[in-house]
């Protein structure tokens, strides 16, 4: 028998209606459109408004769209994995809430946290359940409400992040399509450069932590940028070398959308022309775990069965890596 691989058989995404532009940010903090665009490539980001709406709301919308698009019944789904850095609450898992509200009555579910690399690590995790032969339909959703942990008085971070969710359906394949290889890395020494200071068990919420504004993203931009450029670029190059591939063999680079300069450096290390790079950071900013599936959704009509894709990400922790995927279907009309 041919080996079983986990193939992506559908992709969907959701972004909130409200759009926060660079021009609007100019009225909130000391920044301007030219500065943001030049340094990050971001022009706008989507923000989730509404009392009591969290990452699960975003994820539910993406999952429902995916079910409809792939003609899948909710009860057919065996497993739901949610990659998130902004869970609705410490417990239960945000995946459990999505599972319930999307009607996935036969699926078990759990969260996976690896900062901005969560979707990439989640893809590898989901694939193991398919490749084992145990499950037939697995949904991986990346969902983040980054606006909930962004300090809109901090001009160095508030320009970067947006809210959104993206989901993929994974199914068994015996024709060589799907996830073919991956390289994943972590280096816990990097936590000091990018984290949220309070709200966990080490430093629980208190009047002091709230007053000190410690429940927001803390980032040492220069350090993170330096490590991200090297990490994403080298992992992407490594996945080519491991599989005896050249840039000519790759149809698309699907990079985490954190900063256009990081994306450009990764493409250059791989020897890829810019017309082979998925880019939508200008529309959404950094949606953390939603960036890669948002790219797949936006570029789906340009993907062809058999295309080789390199997915790459870098996140706080530090976490980073790259995956090689052989696309399993032609554009859906």
TrEMBL record:
It catalyses: malonyl-[ACP] + acetyl-CoA + H(+) = 3-oxobutanoyl-[ACP] + CO2 + CoA. It is an enzyme of class 2 (transferase). Homodimer. It holds the Pfam family ACP_syn_III_C. The active site is at 116, 256, 286. It comes from Thermonema lapsum. This is Beta-ketoacyl-[acyl-carrier-protein] synthase III. Residues 257-261 are annotated as: ACP-binding. Its EC number is 2.3.1.180. GO terms for cellular component: cytoplasm. It comes from the Bacteria. Coiled coil: none annotated. One of its GO terms (molecular function) is 3-oxoacyl-[acyl-carrier-protein] synthase activity. It is found in: Cytoplasm. Residues 240-327 form the Beta-ketoacyl-[acyl-carrier-protein] synthase III C-terminal domain. Keywords: Acyltransferase, Cytoplasm, Fatty acid biosynthesis, Fatty acid metabolism, Lipid biosynthesis, Lipid metabolism, Multifunctional enzyme, Transferase. Catalyzes the condensation reaction of fatty acid synthesis by the addition to an acyl acceptor of two carbons from malonyl-ACP. Catalyzes the first condensation reaction which initiates fatty acid synthesis and may therefore play a role in governing the total rate of fatty acid production. Possesses both acetoacetyl-ACP synthase and acetyl transacylase activities. Its substrate specificity determines the biosynthesis of branched-chain and/or straight-chain of fatty acids. Pathway: Lipid metabolism; fatty acid biosynthesis. InterPro entries: ACP_syn_III_C, ACP_syn_III_N, FabH, Thiolase-like. The last Arg residue of the ACP-binding site is essential for the weak association between ACP/AcpP and FabH.
